[in-house]
Amino acid sequence: YARGLFPLAKVLRGKKSSDFSSTAEHRAALVTLFHDYRVMLGLGIVAQFDEIHYSDAISFAKIGEGSIGGKARGLAFMNGVLAKHNHYYKYPNVRVKIPRSLVLATDCFDSFIKNNGLQSIIESNDLDDDAILSEFLNSVMPNGLYDKLKLFIESSKKPIAVRSSSKLEDSHYQPFAGVYSTYMIPRCEDSDQMLRMLARAIKSVYASVYFASSRAYIQSTQNVLSEEKMAVLIQEVCGTEQNGVYFPTLSGVARSQNMNPLGYEKSEEGVCNIVMGLGKAVVDGEKSLRFSPYYPDNALQTSTPTLAVQEAQTEIMALDMNPASFKQSTNDAINIVKIPSTEIADYRNSKYTCSYYDYQSDRISEAEPFGSSFRVITFNRILKYDSFPLAEILRDLLKIGDQELHCPVELEFAVNMDVPHEQYPVFYLLQIRPILRSDQGEKLDWSKVDTSNALVYSNCALGTGLMSDIKHIVNIKFDKFSALNTLAIAEELKTINTSLSMNNHDYVLIGTGRWGSTNPTLGVPVRWEHISQARVIIEAALPDYNIEASQGTHFF
């Protein structure tokens, strides 16, 4: 019988043999087109993993019968939304999709805990994070799971991210962003070696449910640890490999609600922060470029050559592709390396993200000038000259996310422009989560509020709210603060927090720099067990220590 493949026919009608330089190029273009068509047919579907029919054209599959958790549920939902709004083919010469994903449902977690007798580990309060991780790594995965994971590995050609997707994550009332671990494993030719790394990463994510910071957060949100269940989201990592490392052209976080609009920006237009390389840099509070999706060519940080150089990203986060770099650790960034921006000229992606600064004429240009100059990460080619429709895609997705989830949303995404000639650049939607908000502040008429007697006042607050019955203030002494002692400050704060927690006392936390930064030179690197009783968190600045304020992604 005849089958009418009209989408394929529509594309092929506009092609001629003369469009291709060789038979091999013609064949490669057809193979890519047919594969894209198969992917398009599977958009919006959560397929039950079938070892006989599974292939790389299946974008989202599930192993097990339990819940897929909040993070995976949000991604599966947006996969359906992208199909519903036909976003895969919407933008010329660009593909918009989610990464190939495989979810281990919560019943896999339950079987792992039960079969290995880990209940005593869960109930114990005497083990530190390293001891808990060791117990989990020495346990055995459920029967039959290895064969399915190996099939996924053999159908993929990319590194893999192993992400938490617990039942409590990304809910509308208590988002758990950043509480659990995400591990990345490099691609290697030996599938058995990669399978061992994948199994270790899954066990490490399982173990992170019971780390001290996770326990503290669950307790602070009035949830019960024994009721938390963990699904695991396994995804291909966006990017390309070069010089032994792997990273995307750019990554970022976009929010549909801008708490601090500048100039003619509006709160409802949203805001975005992007970096070259892995998006962990944005989440961890490293330097990033902030812009409005509605005014992408008016980013404040690139408004003058001096600002562009001062505020430019200085390091690129990338995945170390050496399998030996993935080691047992409670630090999920154990195999993430930082590339100095002075070395970015050695990487292909720099041609999409960088401009040139000519310090003799004090000018920023896209073409390399004669004389003395160096590269600066500005994203001008994308944001000002529209070499990739990033702003348009973000505007559309933020609007759709708001409409579909009925609340403000936050997106994590990555873009890969370093693709072969016969392929299209790809925008990957990595995650969507609701932004927690309170309606209490909306009941106040701020024009009538007297701030003359306020202890603390800010024009850059993240959201509005009303906190009562707070009787304690924990303040880092400004005159004795040193960026060299932030690790010690975090441990001292943990002792204070534990004491207040035992008496169920809340407090206001005031300090300098960026709270929760993984870079101890930018602020105090606290985790949830350090600040679980804090109800208001304030970031202050010193004359000689003025760090850009965080967006609070992992604390709110």
Your description of this structure?
This protein has about 550 residues and is of the alpha+beta class. It folds into 3 domains: about 45-90 and about 100-235, Dna Ligase, domain 1 (2-Layer Sandwich), CATH 3.30.1490; about 245-435, no CATH class; about 440-540, no CATH class. Helix content is about 30%, strand content about 20%. The protein is built from 16 helices and 22 strands. It has helices at about 5-15, 25-40, 70-85, 105-115, 120-125, 130-135, 145-155, 190-210, 210-220, 280-285, 305-310, 350-355, 380-385, 390-405, 485-500, 530, and strands spanning about 45-50, 60-65, 95, 100-105, 160-165, 180-185, 230-235, 240, 245, 250-255, 270-275, 290, 315-320, 335-340, 355-360, 365, 375, 410-415, 425-435, 470-475, 505-510, 535-540. The chain has a 6-stranded mixed beta sheet with strand order 1-2-4-7-5-6. Strands 3-19-18-10-11-12 form a 6-stranded mixed beta sheet. The chain has a 4-stranded antiparallel beta sheet with strand order 8-9-13-14, with no helix packed on it. Strand 21 (about 505-510), helix 16 and strand 22 form a beta-alpha-beta unit. Helix 7 packs across helix 8. The longest helix is centred in the N-terminal third of the chain and has 20 residues, at about 25-40. The model has no long low-confidence stretch (mean pLDDT about 85).
The share of residues in extended strands comes to 15-25%
**Strand arrangement across the biggest beta sheet:** 1-2-4-7-5-6
The number of domains: 3
What gross morphology would you assign? globular
Structural classification: alpha+beta
Mean of pLDDT: 86
Main pleated-sheet profile: 6 strands, mixed
Give the helix proportion (percent range).
Answer: 25-40%
- N- and C-termini, Cα separation: 57 Å
How many individual helices?
16
What's the Cα radius of gyration? 24 Å
Q: Could you give the count of β-strands?
A: 22
Runs with pLDDT <50, length 5+? Answer: none
